[in-house]
């Protein structure tokens, strides 16, 4: 019996059909080992020794494979034909060696680019050893990403509360998005005008021409800068007759694009199908495992000989000989490392037409895109005739130009046309009438149009992947995860399929640009990728590469370990100043945009609090002015004057009721009397501050509301809105209500029932809290650290110290290092002072008079 190991059960099922009864195909379910998310998993001081661990599920897989291997004659590692696939095979081999089950068992490695019977059987005839150079490239990449992430992230947690993590490529991609947003915000549109003329040829057909020359000078984009310039140009066009001065017609060819590689597949699926990079790769993975397409992680644009023959046969039979070039089109790969440049993404069998595909809708759409691109890559070029007509006015003061492009032969365009962002998509396909030199077309109308320059567009998934590829940052297999991580960390959001940086993302980018500029430089990151390619090509030792990187990076980390938060804020004020401190609308020219609008003499500055960054006045606590970090967020979420919007007067007191904006959001306030503490009420979640009226404001100010007396003891039942939402209270029993509206509507019977339910089902109070994650032992005392489920959210526990997790942290993603930081911070914070109970007055001593006898 021979044991074959692949990554996925779907792949195992497909391969099992091609191999005989002498083979047993098992799945590893991806990687079986990983670096633990804790300090010390990579140890630079020990020659970059790495600790690998298998979780419970992977341990079970390893045991199943080990049991199968014990009674076999050969182990065949058939994981994917790339660096990650090589690494999975290496990990499995190491795990089986540790279990000592490989005695007298032959081990071989096979690779195939497509899961077809011919590809699989051919691979089995050509086994090889594990490619250690590819494994070394994997180890270098994993160690590099670990060292960057686990060194930078703790710095972010200490210096920028609310930040989640930093990564080698992730941070550079985030910088691209933030820089583009900065360009858009700083962009100042420029005005320009164009003059167009509608002309009629001698055959009666009309066409359009643009003014390109005026008074002997060629017009540039901004030559007509205003309406006065445009009117003068219009006059020059209208007062003259015109003569065709020259006609030039030349043939133009447009060649088909090559078959897809990973990045171009992600880009085109985004443009044409609306798929995210992650969705595209999930669908491609299933198509590959089903044997429908070749391997989908590749930089190579070449195809196998059988593919050239198969695609050409489809073209000949379906489209005819005129669409078939004399020879197959062969494209050269742009991949710098030949070992990682596999065959392009193509159908395994071109005879399966997209119209005949049966299966999941996403798979069908993506298969159709891959099939059309691969077949089109082998078709004839499209041919156009591009015509340019120069037309001159009688007095030679005005020159017009008309252009047109006529499709003479559609070629590959009959099957496939590239997405909108692709070059050549702006082809002018307008047809011009037959014109010859000396013709005198008639002027029908001349008109001018005003235009303004536009800022560069925000990145879409397609354009961001394209930009990363142009900069040689990341690799095809990493793009989908990079984009996902940026969104999961809430550093960016997708709006109308375009990336917009969140405040948190801009803070992280500003911090890294200020203190780790070299490590978010595009050239530096691209250079690291090139060196990793050299490792996989055997030209650079992976530990030498890591040693050179770590020496400088460790020094950079150490240089800011003692950095004060005030220094961080000063740097962020400088970097993010144009975004955070924009001049107020209507402000005098030259006015300081950082001047406090409340006290006038204070300076606005970024501040860091428990809930993230915000802007505050330097004169705090005398001036308590605060606003949101983002000017846009402040304007959109809190359209409230700093002094408050008066909603009306309280009918009982006649005092103003105002809607105001505070550091933690909008609230309502009843105008206080002199020396009186103002009565306030926060706007509850789900209520729109912009739609708040006097009636609702008075309802909030009336809280807590007495629902009635409890029938058993006569004590009041109160309804109110607290930090954790709406509730009713009776003595020391609090019961949540499902909606804010019920606070104002709930009756006594319903309130008594809710209180009774709470008493009957007290929840977890008094019971052991649920353990969400065991993090391991504390590095100092060895006591366990756990993530527990608490009444008010998850927290970490070490001995008697409990530390609440930050709002944006996910319990399953918390690491031991983060937990130790939180526990240390909690231990240093002064304990909350408890109010001393009021001293009870000693009862007066009773004096008893002696009874007279």
Can you summarize this structure?
The protein has 853 residues and is α+β, with helices and mostly antiparallel strands. Helices cover 34% and strands 21% of the residues. Among the domains are: 2-130, 3-Layer(aba) Sandwich (Rossmann fold); 140-187 and 457-567, Topoisomerase I, domain 2; 194-255 and 383-452, Topoisomerase I, domain 3 (Distorted Sandwich); 262-380, Topoisomerase I, domain 4, CATH 1.10.290.10; 771-828, no CATH class.
Notes on the protein architecture:
The protein is α+β, with helices and mostly antiparallel strands and 853 residues long. Among the domains are: 2-130, Rossmann fold (3-Layer(aba) Sandwich), CATH 3.40.50.140; 140-187 and 457-567, Topoisomerase I, domain 2, CATH 1.10.460; 194-255 and 383-452, Topoisomerase I, domain 3 (Distorted Sandwich); 262-380, Topoisomerase I, domain 4 (Orthogonal Bundle); 771-828, no CATH class. The protein is built from 23 helices and 30 strands. The strands form 8 sheets. Strands 7, 8, 9, 10, 11, 12 and 13 form a 7-stranded antiparallel sheet that branches. A 4-stranded parallel sheet has the order 2-1-5-6, with helices on both faces. Strands 19-20-21-22 form a 4-stranded antiparallel sheet, with helices on one face. The longest helix has 28 residues, at 132-159. The N and C termini lie far apart (117 Å).
How do the strands and helices of this protein lay out in sequence?
Elements lengths: L1 E5 L2 H10 L4 E5 L14 E2 L5 E2 L5 H15 L3 E4 L5 H16 L7 E4 L7 H8 L7 H28 L10 H17 L4 E10 L5 E9 L2 E2 L8 H12 L3 E13 L7 H12 L3 H13 L15 H15 L41 H16 L5 E12 L4 E12 L32 E11 L8 H10 L8 H10 L3 E4 L2 E4 L1 H13 L6 H15 L5 H18 L5 H11 L1 H4 L23 E6 L2 E6 L8 E3 L2 H7 L7 E5 L6 E7 L2 E6 L8 E4 L11 H8 L3 E5 L6 E7 L2 E6 L2 E4 L4 H5 L2 H13 L10 E7 L6 E7 L2 E6 L2 E4 L11 H13 L25
Parallel strand pairs: 1-2, 1-5, 5-6
Antiparallel strand pairs: 3-4, 7-8, 7-13, 8-9, 8-12, 10-11, 11-12, 14-15, 16-17, 17-18, 19-20, 20-21, 21-22, 23-24, 24-25, 25-26, 27-28, 28-29, 29-30
Helix pairs in contact: 3-5, 5-15, 5-16, 6-14, 8-11, 8-12, 9-11, 14-17
């Amino acid at each position: 019996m021979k044991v074959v190991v692949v990554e996925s059960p779907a792949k195992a099922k497909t391969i099992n059909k091609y191999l005989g009864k002498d083979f047993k195909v098992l799945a590893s379910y991806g990687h079986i080992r990983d670096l633990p998310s804790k300090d010390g998993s990579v140890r630079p001081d020990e020659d970059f020794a790495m600790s690998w661990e298998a979780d419970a599920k992977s341990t079970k897989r390893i045991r199943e494979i080990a049991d199968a291997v014990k009674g076999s004659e050969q182990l065949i590692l058939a994981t994917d034909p790339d660096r990650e696939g090589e690494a999975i095979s290496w990990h499995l081999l190491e795990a089986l060696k540790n279990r000592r089950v490989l005695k007298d068992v032959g081990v071989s490695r096979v690779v195939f680019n497509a899961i077809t019977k011919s590809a699989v059987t051919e691979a089995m005839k050509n086994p090889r050893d594990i490619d250690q150079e590819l494994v070394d490239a994997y180890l270098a990449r994993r160690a590099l990403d670990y060292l960057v992430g686990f060194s930078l992230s703790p710095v972010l947690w200490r210096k920028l509360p609310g930040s989640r993590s930093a990564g080698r490529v992730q941070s550079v991609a985030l910088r691209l998005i933030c820089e583009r947003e900065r360009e858009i915000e700083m962009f100042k549109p420029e005005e320009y005008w164009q003059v167009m003329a509608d002309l009629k040829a001698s055959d009666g057909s009309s066409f359009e021409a643009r003014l390109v020359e005026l008074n002997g000078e060629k017009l540039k984009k901004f030559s007509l800068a205003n309406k006065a310039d445009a009117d003068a140009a219009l006059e020059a066009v209208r007062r003259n007759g015109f003569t065709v001065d020259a006609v030039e017609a030349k043939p133009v060819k447009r060649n088909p694009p090559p078959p897809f590689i990973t990045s171009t597949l992600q880009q085109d699926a985004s443009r044409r199908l609306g798929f995210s990079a992650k969705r595209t790769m999930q669908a491609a993975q299933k198509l590959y495992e089903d044997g429908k397409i070749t391997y989908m992680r590749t930089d190579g644009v070449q195809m196998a000989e059988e593919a050239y023959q198969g695609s050409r046969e489809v073209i000949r039979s379906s489209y005819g000989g005129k669409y078939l070039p004399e020879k197959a089109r062969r494209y050269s790969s742009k991949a710098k490392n030949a070992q990682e440049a596999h065959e392009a993404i193509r159908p395994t069998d071109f005879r399966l037409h997209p119209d005949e595909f049966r299966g999941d809708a996403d798979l069908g759409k993506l298969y159709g895109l891959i099939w059309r691109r691969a077949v089109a890559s082998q078709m004839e070029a499209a041919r156009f005739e591009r015509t340019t007509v120069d037309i001159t006015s009688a007095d030679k003061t005005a020159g017009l130009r008309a252009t047109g492009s006529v499709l003479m032969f559609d070629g590959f365009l009959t099957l496939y046309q590239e997405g909108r962002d692709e070059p050549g998509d702006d082809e002018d396909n307008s047809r011009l009438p037959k014109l010859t030199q000396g013709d005198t077309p008639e002027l029908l109308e001349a008109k001018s149009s005003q235009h303004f320059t536009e800022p560069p567009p925000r990145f879409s998934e397609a354009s961001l992947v394209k930009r990363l590829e142009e900069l040689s940052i990341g690799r095809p297999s990493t793009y989908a995860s990079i984009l996902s991580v940026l969104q999961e960390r809430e550093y960016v959001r997708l709006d109308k399929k375009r990336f917009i940086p969140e405040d948190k993302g801009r803070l992280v980018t500003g911090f890294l640009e200020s203190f780790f500029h070299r490590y978010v430089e595009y050239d530096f990151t691209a250079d690291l990728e090139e060196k990793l390619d050299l490792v996989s090509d055997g030209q650079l030792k992976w530990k030498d590469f890591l040693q050179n990187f770590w020496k400088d990076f460790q020094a950079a980390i150490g240089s800011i370990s003692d950095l004060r938060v005030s220094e961080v804020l000063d740097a962020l004020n400088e970097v993010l100043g144009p975004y955070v401190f924009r001049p107020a609308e209507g402000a005098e020219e030259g006015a300081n945009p950082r001047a406090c609008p409340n006290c006038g003499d204070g300076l606005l500055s970024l501040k860091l609090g428990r809930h993230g960054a915000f802007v505050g006045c330097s004169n705090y606590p005398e001036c308590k002015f605060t606003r949101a970090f983002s000017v846009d967020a402040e304007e959109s979420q809190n359209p409230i004057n700093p002094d408050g919007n008066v909603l009306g007067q309280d009918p009982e007191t006649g005092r103003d009721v105002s809607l105001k904006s505070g550091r933690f959001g909008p609230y309502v306030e009843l105008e206080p009397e002199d020396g009186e503490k103002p009565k306030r009420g926060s706007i509850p979640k789900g209520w729109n501050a912009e739609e708040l009226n006097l009636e609702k404001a008075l309802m909030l100010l009336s809280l807590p509301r007495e629902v009635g007396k409890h029938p058993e003891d006569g004590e009041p039942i109160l309804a109110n809105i607290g930090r954790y939402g709406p509730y009713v209270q009776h003595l020391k029993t609090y019961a949540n209500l499902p909606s804010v509206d019920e606070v104002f509507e709930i009756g006594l019977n319903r309130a008594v029932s809710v209180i009774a339910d709470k008493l009957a089902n007290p929840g977890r109070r008094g019971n052991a809290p649920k353990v969400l994650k065991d993090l391991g032992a504390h590095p100092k005392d060895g006591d366990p650290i756990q993530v527990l489920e608490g009444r008010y959210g998850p927290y970490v526990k070490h001995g008697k110290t409990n530390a609440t997790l930050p709002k944006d942290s996910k319990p399953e993603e918390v690491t031991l290092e983060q937990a130790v930081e939180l526990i240390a911070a909690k231990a240093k914070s002064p304990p909350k002072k408890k109010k001393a109970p009021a001293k009870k007055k000693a009862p007066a001593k009773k004096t008893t008079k002696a009874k007279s006898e």
